[in-house]
Amino acid sequence: MHITSPAFKENAARALADPGLQKALGTAKGAFLQRRAAAVANLPEFERLRDIGRDIKNHTLANLDFYLEAFEAKVVAAGGKVHWCSTADDARAKVLEICRAAGARTVTKGKSMISEELGINQHLEAHGIRPVETDLGEYILQLRNEPPSHIIAPAFHLNREDWEADFRRMHTDLPADRVFAERRDILAEARSRLRERFLAADVGITGANFLIAETGSSVIVTNEGNGDLTQTLPRVHIALASIEKLVPTLEDATSLLRLLARSATGQDFSVYTTFSTGTRRPGDLDGPEEYHVVLVDNGRSNMIGTDFQDMLRCIRCAACMNHCPVYGAVGGHAYGWVYPGPMGSVLTPSLVGVEKTANLPNASTFCGRCESVCPVKIPLPKLMRHWREREFERHLTPTVARAGLGTWAFLARRPGLYRMATRLAVGALGLLGRGKGSFRSLPLAGSWTRGRDLPVPEPGGTFMARYARTQRGRR
Amino acid sequence: MTKEAILGAIRRGLKRGPLPADQRAMLEGRLASHPRHLIPARSRLPRPDQVALFIANVEKEFGTVERVPDLDAIPAALADYLAAQNLPTGFAMAPHPELLGIPWSSRPLLQPAARRAEASDQVSLQHGFAGIAETGSLMLPSAPERPTTLNLLADTAVVVLRASRIHGAYEEAWDRLRAEHRDQRTGGAMPRNIMFVTGPSRSADIEQTLELGAHGPRRLHILLVDDDPAALPPGEAEAPPPAAVPGGPAVPGD
Q1: Which of A27, A412, B135, B175 is the most exposed place for a label (fewest CB within 10 A)?
Q2: Looking at CA atoms only, how far is residue A449 from chain B in angstroms?
Q3: Domain boundaries, position B64
Q4: Which residue ranges does the record annotate as region Disordered (chain B) (predicted)?
């Protein structure tokens, strides 16, 4: 996927000025948050389950080589194949090869973020195979030729009017004056349109929420049932999954599933949670005759043993972006690549390099809500801070910010000088701002005050000065 | 080669080579014993309450449940349901011995067709392997007698589930599967496919507003067979239990 993360600031400015997007973000605001809060309140064990989720993923990552090989052995025993792919190129080539071997003309797809990361659709199209997205949100984005703006609600940025307009524009065989009285009418039109595609497809491609070493299963979680139709009806099923999706056992997967839907949509459990294990068995009346797991590394193994290993625990629930004030203000497209929000601000630099993505870990107020809701307790602010340090070390930080940080560091290492400087600054600002509550603008800090006000320091001097006075008073 | 490269990169990150034999044995032991983690207390209830929790959770997720005393009562219950919903009397039915053994001729208008589902089917009748009270979910493992398409293609999905097969938590249902099912190909417990179904299909992709009737069934109706005297609601528990074991002996291996 084309990356526009280097232009995050411009993207964000455009997003803030986009009335359609702001309307969609306003409509969505709070929906996921309230549902999650209600679901969590209904499960007193939720906090303990978060620790368990973290520990399961940490255990798996510490033994990932073992569990990957155990998984492969079970897939093979169940009649499937595992294709190990180091890079996005390897994975694209493998998917194309499987589709060609199947003589595929049409491929249905369940929602998969790794597919977006790899650019599977573009690759298949370039080679004459038609990919059809079947998740409702992904379907309209394919009509619009847009990437998803949210990892579980891909059309987060669209309003109902957009849906109606796009369906009228693209489904030209239907009466132009048909009425969409309810959202349900939009849903019904997509359902009937996609039914034909499900039945015609030669290959079905899904992602995987989990891979299970104990059984060789891939697990998908959906509400629509599109993923199940995708992996049940065609003759060939391809499960695309990155290596960190692995968990050891059914019990481990179950514990993580208790966290996933609650953290994502606020459901206790998604409508369809499905475990696929190998190919059609003798006597089965349905199910695929080929089962392929395309196992993708694409940068993950390099994260192991680094500060960013914790990020590989992520189960892609989207709670972090749902609770992020920055995501809530600018939406997902501004982040400029596949994964938006706090998890994206950590993962994207790991996968595509900090050179192009240095803006992302800075697109955070460090309010900490993301970490506080993460079902596997990823310390997202800490990891973003690690990226900011890397950014500084590699001289990617803008000169002005760099000079400012340098000055601050010089003073911070000299406490006497630091106190004197702050005393002077507080005194000067206090004089300048007498009678005002806050500064709307300040010389030399124009770009800082453009987006915020600086409160006028209260009388009484710096914190240290006041602290010294209270200490004296006590004695 | 790629496999070795990926495993090698992981091991470099972990700062070690392949795991020594004793650690492998420990991990193999963990896979074989598949230890349980914390199980939420909500489903640890007396049997009647567990079944009531299952029903309440199904209804919370927009499914419907009708309790029937035994399998012989299914034709009447299904015929009445289809009539009330204005649905046709023909339906695709799982070719499961328990469903095949139902006295369908008691309602001659019903036309069960024992097969997988097709896209043109309006109604399907599936055989439930287990229910999970914790979330109101049905556990539907694939088998020749339980085709997966029956969970997906019809507009109205009806599932027959025996109350004795309602468990509190998922872990109990996994253990039942491990005890009852042996896959011919792998020798393990997993069939090709297991679907956990919690209510009818839906989507919230349009403005994060939930709408029922996405790609899967628009309606999910469960015919709950009260074959477990201990699970009957208080007051009915004293009534004489329904005909011995309804529908004859449990099907081995289910």
Answers
A1: A412
A2: 34
A3: 45-203+211-231
A4: 228-254
